[in-house]
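Friendly challenge for the regulars: who can give me the structure tokens for this chain first? No prize, just bragging rights.
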Amino acid sequence: MSATPVVSMPVVTEAHHHRSKFLLAGPKFPLLFLTALPAAVVALSSEGHAQQVSALIALGWFSLVPIALYERWVALALPIVAAGFLVLTLAALPFNSTALIVDVWTSAAMFVLSLPRHGHGLGTRRPQV
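First reply, four minutes later:
Bragging rights claimed.
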């Protein structure tokens, strides 16, 4: 019998270089993740356009936030996505409906919480004195 040659596999050592520095696991992450919970409740309790818009907000946010921990471009896109959710909510839902009010506040909270801290990743640094 011939012996099968052992092939060494390269060890992935560069994985930590691709981690997002904009969204780090910590107390902000669960809070950011749970901001979509009111939209999920509206999606489960509504029907029609309100259900569709709220489900899109909840599913989109629940899928993007964990990915943002590892991918820098997703972390940078979170405020843009939240603003898009806000515009979609205002355009698609009837004025003064419960779904509109909940989804507007949810999207606004998503937007504010997903903004990067000052000077982190936007190319702006405070001058050293």
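The first helix runs from residue 28 to 34. DSSP finds five helices and no strands in the chain. Your move, everyone else.
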